[in-house]
Amino acid sequence: MLLTRLESIQLSYCTRAIFTDLSLSLNDNEKIGLVGPNGAGKSSLLKVLAGVDKPQGGERTLRRGAICAYLPQEFGGSDARSVIDEVLLGRSDLLAMEAELDALEASLTDTELAADLDTFGRLIDQQIALVQRYEERDGPRFRGDAETLLVDLGLPPELHTRPVDELSGGQRKLVGLARCLIAKPDLLLLDEPDNHLDIAGKARLEQVLRAYPGAFVLVSHDRYLLDDTVSRIVEIEDGRLTIYEGNYSSYATQREMALLKQQQDYVAQQKEIKRLEEAIARFKLWASIVIDERHIKQARNKQRQIDRMDKVERPVLERRKMALAFRSAERGGQKVLEARHLAKAFDDNLVLLDAGFSLRRGERAGLIGANGAGKSVLLRLLLGLDEPDEGDIWIGPSINLGYYAQGHETLDLEQTPIEFVRRRHALREEQVVALLGRFLFNYRQARGPISVLSGGEKSRLQLLDLMMSGVNCLILDEPTNHLDIASAEVLEAALDDFDGTVLTISHDRYFLDRTCGRILELEDGEIHEFPGGYSDYFAWKQQREATRQESRT
Predict the structure, then answer these.
(1) What is the pTM of this model?
(2) What class has domain 43-249?
(3) Mean per-residue pLDDT for 426-443?
(4) Quick one: three-class SS letters along 2-49?
(5) CA-CA distance, 125 to 112, in Å (whole number)?
(6) In the sheet where 16-27 sits, what is the strand order?
(7) What DSSP designation does 183 have?
(8) Which residue of 128, 174, 219, 499 lies most exposed, with the fewest beta carbons within 10 A?
(9) Is 415 helix (H, G, I), strand (E, B) or coil?
């Protein structure tokens, strides 16, 4: 059954047209993955579906009585409100009923009202009817449901009474998700709900989405999440939508085949048009030499054939991508770095305890662990930004480290991209402008402050800087966090061709599988090593858990 429809939507921001004639229909229980390059309008489409943004043209319709819940890309909540109170706002109807019941109860205890039997009886009837509606909507259970939801999403009971502003970005996102889910919406709209989540958090999110009984539209750059949770992909590009049946992997295959078919059809049609145009030219020439109405009619008929064709658009087989290609300045020794018996504590919080590992030339290692396990602390120790309480770090004498910061701390936000690159590298302004253009920066972005750039644009600027630095060991902290899928694939290909060493923190399981030959898991202050990519590590963990379960039984 039809749930919601967008009809001929037109949407613009300032002078930039986002959609000019966009239509989309969603039915009950559909599981949709919304994909497209950064800036294509994915978030804008979700806001129109949610009724948050009103289009300048066209119409949005939502089935009468249907409930829609929307989780924005950055969910802040109210800083002063507790976690549980923030979630309960998802059932504003029940909170309003509770307030009305409290007011009725206060009225019924009024001694003066007790003498007015008619009014007293009417209030009793209102209370009975309201209690019945409250119970029909699961009012007595919704607070318990909210607590269960938070625990299922990975927020333990001790956090439920804490103010929202004390939570991390990932935890806030989970609070926002719980607030959406408690409403039991028919349509759930999720804008990158996996942002800032660790691997365990993403696994819990997958479980929630797989079990979700209603329809949802999911924007995500996590290819494994899209593979495991959606049954249809909607691609948005150049203001148009294309729908593909199946998950992300199926979409990628279908899209490649469709583009190749479109290319073949385009070439064949262009040949036919050229043949007809040559025939038209001949008939016109003959008509100019010998006045014969038949030649003129034949030329007109050929032109009608061209005009009546359904023109095949020339396919864009490959969109512009950033021109990322790492290069190392020196080969370096066989042993790149070694961490020995590291210990680090902050106040009473012991983050690292006898942690150690080593990297050899050419290795690609992925560092994983729960949020707060100490991964970024370990990177700061390797880079010399902090000192360990115990242990030491050895770095090869010819090893040059290049650092990608998750929060873009390596960028000077007050500078323009041109100023930043020129001060870091000895290049002329025209060289820098050309280089920024290869990394998809336009004239306005290149000359504006870095502070106004999006997360993805800042990420591309950091990668450009690393590329120009000529380092032979890359230390990457969540490099795909703000990249769209196309840019993440460019990064993966560049790391494949890089002849240096790579250590990367990532919660992107596909990225870890694609780039890493060894997994380092940081848990309880110690580092455990696993050969292979993320899938090999995950299979080993599952096997270990299955063995434990068997031993218990």
Answers:
(1) 0.80
(2) alpha beta
(3) 90
(4) EEEEEEEEEEEECCEEEEEEEEEEEECCCEEEEECCCCCCHHHHHHHH
(5) 18
(6) 16-27, 2-13, 57-62
(7) T
(8) 128
(9) coil
Task: Give the Cβ contact number of residue 467 at 10 Å.
Answer: 20
* Cα–Cα distance for residue pair 442/450, rounded to 1 Å: 13
Same fold, 43-249 and 335-550: yes
Which pLDDT band, with edges at 50, 70 and 90, does 26 fall under?
A: very high
Q: How far is CA 315 from the centre of its chain?
A: 26
Q: What mean pLDDT comes out for the span 29-37?
A: 93
For residue 317, the 8-state DSSP code is: S
- Residue 228 CB neighbour total at 10 angstroms: 17
Integer angstrom CA distances of residue 54 from 39, 50, 213, 425, 430: 19, 10, 28, 46, 42
What three-state secondary structure class fits 138? Answer: coil
Q: Is 337 left (phi over 0), alpha (psi -120 to 50) or beta?
A: beta
> Quick one: pLDDT band at residue 213, thresholds 50, 70, 90?
very high
Q: Residues 484, 485, 489, 490: what is their CA dihedral angle, to the nearest 10 degrees? A: -30
CA angle at 432 for the pair 39 and 332, rounded to the nearest 5°: 100
Cα-flanking dihedrals φ and ψ of residue 475, to 5°?
-110, 110
Domain chopping of the chain, boundaries: 43-249, 251-308, 335-550
Q: For all residues of the chain together, what is the average pLDDT?
A: 88
Q: Is the pLDDT of residue 494 over 90?
A: yes
Average pLDDT over every residue of 389-418 = 91
The CATH homologous superfamily of the domain defined by 335-550: P-loop containing nucleotide triphosphate hydrolases (3.40.50.300)
Give the distance, in angstroms, between the CA of residue 269 and the centroid of all CA atoms in the same chain: 38
Around Cβ 309, how many Cβ atoms within 10 Å? 12
CA dihedral 56, 62, 67, 68 (to 10 degrees): -40
Beta bridge partner(s), residue 34: 219, 234
Phi-psi region of 51 (alpha: psi -120 to 50; beta: other; left: phi over 0): left
Compute the CA torsion angle 61, 64, 65, 68 (nearest 10 deg): -10
CA distances from 447 to 411, 419, 433 (A): 15, 8, 9
Angle between helices 139-152 and 169-182 (to 10 degrees): 150
Using the 8-state DSSP alphabet, how is residue 465 labeled? H
CA distances from 192 to 38, 222, 247 (A): 12, 9, 17
Angle subtended at Cα 83 by Cα 172 and Cα 76, rounded to the nearest 5 degrees:
35
Tally the residues of the chain: 553
Tokens found for residue 541: 């963990």
CB-based contact 83:166 (threshold 8 Å): no
